[in-house]
Amino acid sequence: MESYYVTTPIYYVNDEPHLGHIYTTIAADVLARYQRQCGKDVFFLTGVDEHGQKVQQAAEAREIEPIELADQVVARYESLWPEFSISNDDFIRTSSERHKAGVQGMWRKLENAGTIYKDFYEDWYCVPCESYWTETQLKDAGRWEDKSCPDCKRAVEKIQEESYFFRLSAFQDRLVEHIKANPDFIQPTSRRNEVLSFVEGGLRDLSVSRTTFSWGVPVPGDEKHVIYVWIDALTNYISALGFPDKDINKHWPADVQLIGKDILRFHAVYWAAMLMAAELPLPKRIYAHGWWTVEGEKMSKSLGNALRPADLLKEYDADVLRYFLLREVPFGQDGDFSFTALKQRYNSELANDVGNLLNRSLAMLNKYSDGVLGEVNEEQDMDRALIADIEGMQMDVAQALDRQAFHLALERISVVVRHGNRYVEDNAPWALAKAGDDKRLATVLYHLVETLRLVAMQLTPFMPTKMSAMLSQIHGEEVNAEEMTAALHGGWGLLQAGHQCSRPQPIFPRMD
Ligand code: MSP
Questions:
Q1: pLDDT interval class at 92 (50, 70, 90)
Q2: Is the CB of 233 under 6 A from ligand 1?
Q3: How far is the CA of 206 from the centre of ligand 1 (A)?
Q4: pLDDT digits over 182-201, tens only?
Q5: What distance in angstroms lies between residue 306's CA and the mean position of ligand 1's atoms?
Q6: Is there an atom of ligand 1 within 6 Å of 16 CB?
Q7: What residues have CB less than 8 Å from 96, skipping those under 6 apart?
């Protein structure tokens, strides 16, 4: 069985889950579900990043131990994921023993490859980003006067301590070569170009240990050093697979690693160089998505406008949020979350288009033939055009999801739904019933129900619960959409004459 490995970043436990966290995780979930539907052996990993100075400080501020803070936030994630139908196969915690073994294993690999040396670090550090800055970098970014981080604009602090270094500079040429030879390695392309010029601009060795705090994985053989939190965190993608003790080849290299644009450098440069040093293959793709603003404003803890997924669920259905987040903004671009846009999209695409097609089709089927499908008689051009459109949709959705173009996949499905609604108007089943043309009526109703079924199959990775409800009405019995693979259920003509559908039950009532 072909394998498919998809990952999300692991989320810091100094903050509660917010919109950005659920966004990446939903995107990864859609890919995982789609690939499972296609029959692949999927491994979908998410988790939390528990170590580092930032988390230690957040715990100190609350006067609790870092692990207590981590446990509290992990509990939030554990209750949130099922509410959003997140189907992760594993959840990695960086405080776990298996992860610690992975990080120390990685350290030894880096050491054995001759890429680790001890020196003295004297420069600047941004705790919120957990990243290092030189004086020159701060000056170039115009951040020297107020000593703030070029990325997040918060205060940086001076560090002077003995530290281990990773010979990142030695990987510059290989990284450039790899990025150039593999155009798909970093996506979208604009981000790839940014990384390429960053690497071509020259890489400095990276300080990879700290001695001034203790919340992390100790350097093997030199326990007063804690391994730099990004070296620790990035290793999660393989520690979860059992590295270094188990064979990770079944799933590694990952097919796609989804991240936000702010953490691209850590993945495309540090992670890639670590893997090269450890003689492991690089992920096939790193995809950096854009950032959400909320009603036009940057989300921030200080503004208090961070959208909490758990709060959104009080008013909105999880599947509707899943749909909206992936439909509204092309993955890779920044976008704005607004409740007006959410309602508009819901009413036009889900209530008016999908909901309407489902309700009217099943209502007519029940009215004219007690919900039972009849024989298909003599297909006409209109019928063939509908089937061709569905087959086109299946191919286009596969291609779009292969490129993480979620919005294009959904747009393409919408085309078929609108086609279905036009097909109803063009064939006017009510007129066929009135004229007593039972043969044509049965053909038209059959085409409508098969269209609905295949649309629901395509929408299942995006809205698994809603689509289980839709497919249950079509199949006339409770079904679990998740278990329906494309190989068995994806082709036109599965439903047979005599098949009984249920009465329509609105799944997308209009929102006011
Ligand atoms: N712990 C690191 C990742 C380590 S991966 C080996 C981290 N954690 S985080 O919790 O701060 O951020 C996780 C993700 O949330 C990042 O991919 C980031 O891009 C994303 N987002 C944070 N705010 C966001 C928005 N406003 N919009 C979309 N995504 C956002 O970084």
A1: very high
A2: yes
A3: 22
A4: 999 999 999 999 999 999 99
A5: 13
A6: no
A7: none
Q: In this model, does residue 488 exceed pLDDT 90?
A: no
| pTM for this entry | 0.97
Long-range contacts of 63-70 (CB under 8 A, 24+ apart): 66/215, 67/95, 69/13, 69/14, 70/13, 70/95
**Taking the CA of residue 293 as centre, how many other CA atoms within 13 Å lie in the half-sphere pointing to its CB?**
8
Q: Ligand 1, closest atom to CA 298?
A: 26
Ligand 1 close to Cβ of residue 464 (< 6 A):
no
3-state secondary structure of 267: helix
Between the two ends of the chain, the Cα-to-Cα distance in Å is: 47
Question: Tokens 């796609």 map to which residue?
Answer: 256
Does the CB atom of residue 93 touch ligand 1 within 6 A?
no
Q: What is the DSSP string of 277-288?
A: HTT-PPPS-EEE
- Give the Å distance between the CA of 268 and the centre of ligand 1: 15
How does pLDDT run across 444-474, given as a tens digit for each residue? Answer: 999 999 999 999 999 999 999 999 999 999 9
Q: Using CB atoms within 10 Å of the CB of residue 221, give its burial: 0 to 12 exposed, 13 to 18 middle, 19+ buried.
A: exposed
